[in-house]
Amino acid sequence: MKISFPVRMIFLYITIFLVAFLLIGRLYFLQIMNGEAFSDQADRQYIAPNDTIFNRGSIFFKDKNENLISAATLKTGFILAMVPKLLEDPEDAYKKISNIIEIDADIFYNKANKKDDPYEEILNKLDIETANKIEELNISGIKIYKERWRFYPGGNLFAHTLGFMGYSGDSFEGLYGVEKYYNDLLKRDDSRMYMNFFAETFSDISKSLSGKKLEGDIVLTIEPTAQSFLETELKNISEKYNTDSAVGVVIDPKDGGIYALGINPSFDLNNFENEKNSSFRNPFVEDVYEMGSIIKPITMAIGLDTGVVDAETTYNDTGSMTINGSKISNYDGKARGVVNIQEVLNQSLNIGATFIEQKIGNKKFAEYMLDLGIGEETGIDLPNETSGLVSNLKSNRDIEYATASFGQGIAMTPVETVKALCTLVNGGKLITPHITSGIKHRIGISRELMYDEGERIFKKETSEEISRMLVRVVDEALIGGSVKLDNYSIGAKTGTAQIAKEDGRGYYDDKYLHSFFGFFPAYNPKFLIFFYIVNPKGEAYASHTLTEPFMNTVDFLINYYEVPPDR
Questions:
Q1: Alpha helix stretches (DSSP H) within 158-257
Q2: Is 493 helix (H, G, I), strand (E, B) or coil?
Q3: Peptide bond into 521 cis (omega under 30)
Q4: H/E element holding 73?
Q5: What helix, strand, coil percent values describe the chain, rounded to 5?
Q6: How many beta carbons lie within 10 A of that of residue 219, not counting itself?
Q7: CB neighbourhood size of 104 (10 A)
Q8: How many CB atoms lie within 10 A of CB 440?
Q9: Could you write out the DSSP letters of every residue in 394-434?
Q10: CA-CA distances (angstroms) from residue 425 to 129, 230, 271, 281, 419?
Q11: Model confidence over 53-73: pLDDT tens digits?
Q12: Which of 433, 414, 434 is nearest to 287 (CA)?
């Protein structure tokens, strides 16, 4: 059928309109959103045609009101340089410039004597006021160039996880943390500066449609005020107990989004040149520890889920027992006699955890532990993640399963531990811990990252029951029930574990790992808080070192997020 003239015209007008809309939109993003980058490129072309001003995508925190706060950005300044062969009077030049800014005389004259060198940098990162004053001197052979560099407004805030940039061979790129994990997305292709406008426009659209990686900015789940509070709390813990290190995380146990992740000691992201490389490792994802008694709630949940125990179960606690020729005992070696299963959590009884594991059976217990992701990477969006050491869950000896039931003999990464603990209180499902909520692409598309709902490990009823039991720990047992809040249901468990020697031959007699996890509001949890400290001095148990920091964090979160009472 022949298309009438008006229909053809309407079709043509629609096509023209769509193309015009596309081009206008692209012009907006090029001129408004990327205008500074092009301006910088133009500024530099007459100075160093083969060089480009450093460019890289930004990283943002996101506050509780969804406002974006800069975590990693670019800072603009100026380079003071010279062309030695054009410098007619070095002494006069030095005198005039040193009246404006301090310069090392030996360095200045040494560079001035390199007459065959076409370019020598003297100082960098000058502010615009200083640069203008030097420029006004109009000294032959003295040049002022614009430059940009990576800048972290928070200094040491979130340092280990945010990461920083450096040289890997000849390439200047992200070396640690978010900077490394998302390096391909954050880095900028300098060749785009010289690309034909239409070619660049349709290249971006083609990449978007084909699903290829686009350049963009990163939006984190990290809430900067919560992050600052957590880091201050960790610093106080470290100073009070002279720890080797202290780590804390606040996470949404339902979706895995991390509100705050702190590590102490920290370092300044803008001034880290004198730090040892080992200071930059992220222990939350790279270290493994035997976590101790915070694993007991997992053992209890497996027992509840398999039906071998319930809240009314009792057992005879003998204080110690021998399995495969090895003796295990409660932390104090004392027997409790016939007690309710709740006391396994209230009093942190190793014999009770072993009783539950024996009722479950080694094979089923190991299946649950491995299904929780223990011994596997969690998939967190951070580089260098390692996995736990769980060979004892494949042993032929009963003793290995007994010790695993109370958190010794198997080693877990902190992030792996947090993932498993979230499953206890969120209805029984695995989550993917993550620190990134979205990506802002250069072509103007913003997208929220979606994380798949994980496999169900525990029945919903099991999650509810273990949550009730852990609330009783806080209400009745933690520091004698003195930290209970009348208007908020809070569940928690502490852990104190021996630290294994580096050679794998036994444990230190005087080094311990203290750990603590808690969650609230307990029956619809918005926050799960996890602390661990390495080798604290002066206190033997985690209940004494970490209860106060935990409750401080709970109080902060209640007030800052205006959490309504739940009881």
A1: 159-162, 177-181, 183-186, 197-210, 224-241
A2: strand
A3: yes
A4: strand 68-82
A5: 40, 25, 35
A6: 23
A7: 11
A8: 18
A9: G-SSHHHHHHHHTT-SSBB-HHHHHHHHHHHHTTSB----B
A10: 57, 22, 41, 30, 11
A11: 789 999 999 999 999 999 999
A12: 414
The residues that bridge with 498 in the sheet, in sequence order, are: 512
Q: Residue 72 and residue 54: Cα distance in Å, rounded?
A: 14
DSSP 3-state of 158? coil
**pTM of this structure:** 0.86
pLDDT bucket at 517, cuts 50 / 70 / 90: very high
**Bridge partners (DSSP) listed for residue 328:** 321
Across the strands, what pairs with 166?
173
- List the domains of the chain with CATH numbers: 224-560 (3.40.710.10)
Of the candidates 537, 532, 531, the residue with the CA atom closest to the CA atom of residue 554: 531
* HEC per residue, 285-321: HHCCECCHHHHHHHHHHHHHHHCCCCCCCEEEECCEE
DSSP secondary structure, 321-387, as one string:
EEETTEEEE-TT----EEEETHHHHHTT-HHHHHHHHHHH-HHHHHHHHHHTTTTS----SSTT---
Return d(Cα 216, Cα 447) in angstroms, integer: 11
What's the confidence (pLDDT) of residue 28? 54
Distance between CA atoms of 221 and 206, rounded to whole angstroms? 29
| C-alpha to C-alpha distances, 60 to 220, 330, 489, 545, nearest whole angstrom | 6, 47, 33, 33
Cα-Cα-Cα-Cα dihedral sign, residues 267, 268, 269, 272: negative
**Does an H or E element contain 69, and which?**
strand 68-82
Question: Measured between alpha carbons, how far is 479 from 474 in angstroms, rounded to an integer?
Answer: 8
Three-state DSSP class for 538?
A: coil
Question: Residue 3 carries which DSSP code?
Answer: P
Instruction: Report, in angstroms and rounded to the nearest whole number, the Rg of the chain calculated over CA atoms.
Output: 30
Distance in angstroms (rounded) separating the CA atoms of residues 117 and 38: 29
In tens, the pLDDT along 450-494 reads: 787 789 999 999 999 999 999 999 999 999 999 999 999 999 999
Q: Tokens 């889920």 identify what position?
A: 305
Contacts of 39 (CB under 8 A, 6+ apart): none
Q: Are the C-beta atoms of residues 282 and 305 closer than 8 Å to each other? A: no
| Residue 168: per-residue pLDDT | 86
Q: If you count them, how many residues does the chain have?
A: 567
Residue with tokens 């709902």: 453
